[in-house]
Write a structure and sequence with these properties.
homotetramer; alpha/beta; D-Maltodextrin-Binding Protein, domain 2; six-stranded mixed sheet; five-stranded mixed sheet; 15 strands; about 30% helix; prephenate dehydratase activity (chains A, B, C, D); amino-acid biosynthesis (chains A, B, C, D)
Chain lengths: ~325, ~325, ~325, ~325
């Protein structure tokens, strides 16, 4: 039996597009749309699939709460890949329907919010309707007797339901993107590629003032840039947070390893989420000061120096 | 005409309960339920109401994205008060319906997630239905011929629609709480009470490594504890974030003022959201190291010392 | 009566050269050589002179302990000027004595140490003798029947005692320099020039771990570079130190003022030693991270922003 | 031939007392007094002795410049032991001389400075004379026809020259102490004792702002307290310093090792001076913030955790 992959459905969403990009070799009938992020995680944890794809964060809306919750809680899973998909919205209609004919548009509320300007300009009189996903909108429009004239969806969604693109790029922000992750059951991380990212969840003890700065310094002192820091309530009452951290580099690198050991020491708990190839090199927050001389070569040279000092050699 | 107040509706939600607690003197017919957080902000901005109440963060789900978005973008509003409301779920049914009779339960998806354990134990055979709010669930149950036998909602929701409490405290976490804020048009902040909170949004330049530690240090160096730090995409692409910060103290305090000036200097932009009385003293994250001698008295003493030094007095 | 100035004697030392450079308009008979740094401080404190010149640090030997001790202890004095004098040693002899004739050389032990290479090369057979100052060496050589053939001294020393320069630049390091300060009784510091230095002594409480980093951060956070940090025992037992700090900028500058207020708050005691024009702009250690946007204009802009925020203006 | 040990002479100084305390088993005729700190270092470097004892710092006067210079420059030596000797001054005279008879007192200038109060009270009419060491003073007083009636010296100095103690504890500060070190040729450091000290010299690049804070943080982040920080000019002109650092712990400890590797990475050069048993546990400056969980056990636990993470085990 070929490998199976779960993803946040229905078919035709941006998540399916992400899965296609991450696993182009996987046939469509080996992919399993799930209703809900939690269902994807469950399918992975229970071994019913070999991996799963879910959205992690969106450049407009922020973190996807359900994904973050699943990564933090429940049985551990490991992130093994990521991909950033441009959020390009297309207006789809049934064959023969022109822009001027469109009086009603269905889509997901987030998509609606991100296309408001275009719709106000180009379809000022059209009524808009919220449905559960952009793919569901496309599916609904495709049905005979649909109450909707058009759908705003991902390109993959319109194509899947046999619709015709009436207008491309109807989103108000041309640079919007969503970052998706591929999850699997825990195991050795993929080998370093030289451009990797490492994700962890850090639980700092709330009776320990200064802990957050100390946590960030563990990375900064080793020249490890952070690309994302997201707080998340631990569920133990208002004001109790943990921190989801994405850092540049791979756990097998000396500097990342030393930073993670430092984080482990000062935190109540740390959940390692994975080291995996970066989708691209341009999405760096880099909020931390990279000190000089923190290359992996510098780390190895310092180790050799320490060995010499400990053995009494003149350095 | 009396003062009018908007809130995230419908009537009977936890948000209405928050408004009652913040403004107990306001008659019900001076309160305006709105459909959507954005509608509350718009009503405030346009001057149609004197203030509005919206949820800011939940101890289980985290920040309320719509509220954060409105605080960051659009015309400025000011936070003038906050309240933390315990998320206590009650199972409501029509008069005469006993627990054993309940075969279907309606509520909001978040409430459903937070009552899953209780329902599995006490109503293992009941079907559950998601509706748009806990109050809508109560309203639906109250209607003659309702498809639902019971609703999980806030106490205020069941009461408003004439339902009877079948079971109290049906949430799985007894300590869950939601923090609500009262917003108004910009103006001088309320006078310091001695136990205040200050909220700002800080935009750090992403070409400036170390900026986040530097930002946190601006508070830490003046002994100002942070009670919340939430990242939020700026909308300018993946990897670009701003930070929503809640800090202890009032902008009129010397140490808070100096910290904010420091933040202002190092950030691309800072939006001041308000200084207001803290709902309580127990919800502190306090992630920062409070250095010694950072009371306001210490700040004033140091100012006097500097004046003497500058004038040439022997100190 | 004209103003009188004390300096570390005897006449003809580098200190006299420093005084000449700092106060070129003062006639020689208004200058008072003192035997010992403490005597210069006493003359200033008791009002017998209007100011005094002493060495503060040497680029080869480090801080001058006696000067540091006097600045830290006893009645306060204020540093009002500084000058860096190149330590250029000259070999002087009586008229008619050639290099080949020199069999004995007198000088101060520090000078001897710094000219050892030259002497070994050029006068390999000459015997060397230590005397109490380079000027005393010159004076001794000038006396009829002197036991010494030559003296290594400052140019001013040889000239004062009528000697002839046999060789210039006999020091082994061409870049050696000594920094001298002018001290006066406390009073308003000289007006800022745009290139100033500020000196303080900070006493940190030794029961307060992290105090030194915190102290350095008070400057770094305001973009104030340190040009010198010297520890000094407080006299209360081994392991108890205070720190003599030279920083860039003038106490009348906003950023320096705020930094000093921060230092004042966290320290047990701070002694302000003065703000005065920098001798030159090239002698900067700059060991601290200058954050962005810490110009005085930035400080004033932030003050105006805070005033607007406090008054309720939209910012 | 038994082991030979050099020390800063002459015989009878506090340095000889320190050598006796460090090496009580060494017979007097195996100890070699040297004239000058540099001579002790040379004897060690050239292998003429097995070790040497020199003063490092005094609680009143601060660092001993000659010792610091030798440690930083020239062929490396290693510190293998330390001892803190209380600076207890005794007034010695020849047999038969009473306090009332004393009209002249000889001693070293530093001793004179530290006994000024006692002498003013108890011998207000006695003249004082400076000689090259306290032991030289005792020796001079012991000579027949000595111009001096009494000497202020260490107890060992008076005894060695057959003098009688006229008064004990004549120093103005009862807690003054000098710290001495034992130096040897480089080799493996002595085994950790659990209460050790580690000394290094760090050369930070002066074109690198923030380097000093970064340097201190390398220790602070690993919970390694500093007990001494002394700046010292590098000799390359005013404003260029290196830092002599004493830290708690032993180079063989995980946390000290990691801190030193960090220092090595960020510095232009580091000279390791040794790890050796602490003379006592009470002389700690501890200027750095010890973060939680930085015991060596914490370091080893974190190493094991990282190994598990790298191998793909669920942690």
């Amino acid at each position: 039996m070929p490998n199976q992959y779960a993803y946040l459905g229905p078919a035709g969403t941006f998540t399916e597009a992400a899965l296609r990009e991450l696993k182009p070799e996987v046939p469509v009938d080996s992919t399993v749309p799930c209703t809900g992020v939690d269902a994807v995680f469950t399918a992975v944890r229970e071994g019913r699939v070999d991996g799963g794809v879910v959205p992690l964060e969106n450049s407009v809306e922020g973190g996807v709460s359900a994904t973050t919750a699943e990564l933090i809680e429940g049985a551990p899973v490991m992130v093994t890949a990521e991909v950033a998909v441009p959020v390009e919205f297309t207006l789809f209609a049934r064959e023969g329907v022109a822009l001027a004919d469109i009086k009603s548009v269905a889509t997901h509320p987030h998509a609606l919010a991100q296309c408001r300007g275009w719709l106000a300009t180009n379809l000022p009189d059209a009524e808009t309707f919220s449905v559960s996903s952009t793919a569901a909108a496309a599916q609904a429009v495709a049905e005979p007797g649909s109450p909707y004239d058009a759908a705003v969806s991902a390109r993959i969604g319109g194509k899947r339901y046999g619709l015709r693109a009436v207008a491309e790029g109807v989103g108000d922000r041309s640079d919007a993107a969503t970052r998706f992750i591929h999850i699997a059951r825990p195991g050795p991380p993929p080998a370093p590629t030289g451009a990797d990212r490492t994700s962890v969840v850090a639980f700092i003890s709330d009776d320990h003032p200064g802990a957050l700065i100390e946590l960030l310094n563990q990375f900064a002192m080793r020249g490890v840039n952070l690309t994302r820091l997201e707080s998340r309530p631990t569920g133990d009452g208002l004001g109790k947070y943990c921190f989801c951290i994405d850092a540049e580099g791979h756990v097998h690198e000396a500097r990342v390893g030393e930073a993670l050991m430092g984080v482990r020491r000062i935190c109540t708990d740390v959940r390692f989420l994975g080291s995996y190839p970066r989708a691209d090199g341009d999405t760096t927050l880099t909020p931390l000061q990279p000190p000089r001389r923190t290359s992996n070569a510098d780390f190895h040279e310092a180790e050799r120096w320490l060995a010499r000092v400990r053995s009494g050699e003149v350095t």
